[in-house]
Amino acid sequence: LLQLGGNFSLPTCCSNKLIFELIKNVEFNIKKLQTSVHNSVRNNSIAIINSLISLKPKKNFIIKKLQKATRLTKQFLKDNSNIIFTKADKGNLTVALDKNI
């Protein structure tokens, strides 16, 4: 997973949390608009959010492998709390450091 880089988007498993964040962001950005368009933006957003709720993500072989790798990586990091991963100063590298050394 580390070689995928920081901008790689993994499949999500918590769609309720994502939808909640989407609603928060819509409401936050509505405040920047004129009050006359608030309800129009909300109504259009509701249609989009409802379509997202009813959308069932397809799980193919690659997505299943990525989800398994994510789960194993999280478990590894939890079991090995002495290891820190960070970006290197130069290049597109990930550096692993041992806290105990």
Automatic annotation (TrEMBL):
Superkingdom of the organism of origin: Eukaryota
Descriptive protein name: Uncharacterized protein
